[in-house]
Write a structure and sequence with these properties.
By secondary structure, the protein is α+β, with helices and mostly antiparallel strands. The chain has 17 helices and 12 strands. Helices cover about 40% and strands about 15% of the residues. The relative contact order is 0.11. The mean pLDDT is about 95. Nucleotidyltransferase involved in the post-translational modification of proteins. It can catalyze the addition of adenosine monophosphate (AMP) or uridine monophosphate (UMP) to a protein, resulting in modifications known as AMPylation and UMPylation.
C-alpha cells in the first residue's frame, strides 16, 4: 500500500493555545483536476511529483485533509488601507502542517481556497482560477528574481462555480512558506488586550523562526529589529525590480520579510513612480512610490503590538533605523543595476536623475534596465537602443553623458560589467498581460501557457530565445487591464 504524499505532517502551530486558531475540516473541490504542479519545487522540498500527480495527491491538493490531520485556520487582525479593520483571520486558507525538506528546513504547507473557515466573514472560502493562476505564477516569478517570497507548489481546479464580479470556476493553490506569520497576528492579540498572547506568539516566533535571537540581551527587541531589517530589504528588492504589491495592509505583511498574499500586484511597464496597480486603491495609498513608507507605517503598527514586551523608547529607536536601512539597501541595488563597482557620494543623484527622466518619458522599466548592460562608452556612441526609449532624447543624452563619465572612471572590464548587470536586471518579469493570456487559455482548459511561463520565470535573467516574446513591449490592450482586491 502506498503511503500518503503528506503522511508525516506535524502541526507545529497547534502547540499554541487554542485562541490562536480554529481546527477546520476543508471542503474539497468537486471533480478536481491538476492545473499545474511545480515539479522543481516539489523535488526541492523532497516530495515526489509523480505521487502528487496521482489521484490521492490531487485530492489533497484540491482540499482533502491528510489522514488523521485536521487543518487549522489562524486568527489575526489588521489595518486595511490605513484603517483598523478588527478581526480578520484565514478566511480561505488552511494550514495543513509542516514539512521538513532534505536540508532540515521546515516549511508550512497551506491550502488557499479549500472552503469556509470561522474567519471567512462574508466570503465563501473559495479562490477562483483567475486569481490562483496569478498567485501561482507571481510567487514563483518573484522567487526566480531572488526576492524573499511565499512559494507555490500546485494549482488544482474544478468546474465548481464561484461568484465574483462574474461567475468563475474554483481552484485551490497549495502555498508553502517557512512561516505565514503576519504583523496582524500580533496586532490581533494586542488590540484585544491579550498581552500574554503577544508574549506567547513572540516566543513561538523566536523559537521556531529566529532561534539565533533567543540568547540576545533583549530578545523581543531583537525580534522587532530583525523584522524591520528584513522589511527594509524587501522594500528595496521590490522597488529595484519595479514590483507593486497593491494591497499592503498589515495583515498582508510577513513577519519573516516575505512577499505574501499576491492579489492586485503588477510589474511596471512604462515607469511611473505614482503607478497604482490596484483598481480598488482609489486614493493611491499603495502606489509604487509609496511602498517603502507604507512599510514603515505598518512596522509602526507592529511595534505598537510589542509595547507590552519592549519599552517604547527602544521601539522608537528601532523604527528610526528603518529609513537608513532601506536607503542603503536600495542604493546598493541601484548601483548594481547601473553596473557601478565603486560606491561614490554622487551615485544617489545619478540614479535619481535617471528615474526622473524615465518617469517623465514613461520608459519601459524592465526593457530599459536590460538594455543598459549594452551601453557603449566609446566616443561618439549614441546608444540608440536606449535613446529611442525616450520621447525627450535630450534628457537621455544629458544623463548618458554623466553615466559614461562615471563608467569610465572605473577600471572595470566592460564584459564583466555587462555580465554583472544582466545578473541583476531581469529580461523577463510577469507582466499583467502575460498572466492574463495564461488565464484566458486556462479557462478554455489549455494550461500550456502556465507551464511555459513557469519555465521562463524560473530563470528570468537568462537570455532564452525561445521566450523572446515575453521580453517584448506590452501590447496596446495591456493598458486596459484592471486588477483589484478580488484578483
Amino acid at each position: 500500500m502506498k503511503t500518503h504524499p503528506f503522511a508525516m505532517l506535524p502541526q507545529r502551530y497547534a502547540t499554541l493555545p487554542p485562541r490562536f486558531y480554529r481546527a477546520v475540516e476543508p471542503t474539497a473541490l468537486p471533480e478536481p483536476r491538476l492545473v499545474h504542479l511545480n515539479d522543481a519545487f516539489a523535488r526541492e522540498l523532497g516530495l515526489d511529483p509523480e505521487r502528487l500527480a496521482e489521484p490521492d495527491g490531487v485530492a489533497l491538493l484540491a482540499g482533502s485533509a491528510p489522514p488523521g490531520k485536521t487543518p487549522l485556520s489562524t486568527a489575526y487582525s489588521g489595518h486595511q488601507f490605513g484603517v483598523w479593520a478588527g478581526q480578520l483571520g484565514d478566511g480561505r486558507a488552511l494550514l495543513l502542517g509542516e514539512w521538513r525538506d532534505g536540508r532540515g528546513r521546515d516549511w508550512e504547507i497551506q491550502l488557499k481556497g479549500a472552503g469556509l473557515t470561522p474567519f471567512s466573514r462574508m466570503g465563501d472560502g473559495r479562490a477562483v482560477l483567475r486569481s490562483s493562476i496569478r498567485e501561482y505564477l507571481c510567487s514563483e516569478a518573484v522567487a526566480g528574481l531572488g526576492i524573499p517570497t511565499t512559494r507555490a507548489l500546485a494549482i488544482a481546479g474544478s468546474p465548481e462555480p464561484v461568484y465574483r464580479e462574474t461567475v468563475e470556476t474554483a481552484a485551490v493553490v497549495t502555498r508553502v512558506a517557512e512561516s505565514f506569520l503576519r504583523f496582524g497576528h500580533f496586532e490581533h492579540c494586542y488590540h484585544r488586550g491579550d498581552e500574554d498572547g503577544v508574549r506567547v506568539l513572540a516566543d513561538f516566533a523566536l523559537r521556531h523562526h529566529f532561534p539565533e535571537l533567543q540568547d540576545s540581551a533583549q530578545p523581543y527587541a531583537a525580534l522587532v529589529g530583525e523584522v524591520i531589517a528584513r522589511t527594509a530589504r524587501l522594500m528595496a528588492d521590490w522597488q529595484a525590480v519595479g514590483f507593486c504589491h497593491g494591497v499592503m495592509n498589515t495583515d498582508n505583511m510577513s513577519l519573516l520579510g516575505l512577499t505574501i498574499d499576491y492579489g492586485p500586484f503588477g510589474f511596471l511597464d512604462g515607469f511611473d513612480a505614482a503607478h497604482i496597480c490596484n483598481h480598488s486603491d482609489h486614493a493611491g495609498r499603495y502606489a509604487y512610490g509609496q511602498q517603502p513608507q507604507v512599510a514603515l507605517w505598518n512596522l509602526n503598527c507592529l511595534a505598537s503590538a510589542f509595547l507590552p514586551l519592549v519599552p517604547e523608547e527602544e521601539l522608537v529607536a528601532l523604527l528610526r533605523g528603518y529609513q537608513a536601512r532601506f536607503e542603503g539597501a536600495y542604493l546598493a541595488r541601484m548601483r548594481a543595476k547601473l553596473g557601478l563597482a565603486d560606491a561614490r557620494p554622487d551615485d544617489v543623484e545619478l540614479a535619481e536623475a535617471l528615474l526622473l527622466a524615465m518617469h517623465a518619458n514613461r520608459v519601459d522599466y524592465t526593457i530599459f534596465w536590460r538594455r543598459l548592460a549594452g551601453f557603449d562608452t566609446a566616443d561618439g556612441a549614441t546608444n540608440d537602443a536606449l535613446r529611442n526609449l525616450f520621447v525627450d532624447r535630450a534628457a537621455f543624452d544629458g544623463w548618458a553623458a554623466r553615466y559614461r563619465e562615471r563608467l569610465l572612471s572605473e577600471e572595470r572590464d566592460p564584459a564583466a560589467r555587462r555580465a554583472a548587470m544582466n545578473a541583476v536586471n531581469p529580461k523577463y518579469v510577469l507582466r499583467n498581460h502575460l498572466a492574463e493570456t495564461a488565464i484566458r487559455r486556462a479557462r478554455d482548459g489549455d494550461f500550456s501557457e502556465v507551464d511555459r511561463l513557469m519555465r521562463c520565470l524560473a530563470r528570468p535573467f537568462d537570455d532564452a530565445p525561445e521566450f523572446d516574446d515575453y521580453a517584448a513591449f506590452p501590447p496596446e490592450w495591456a493598458g486596459d487591464l484592471s486588477v483589484s482586491c478580488s484578483s
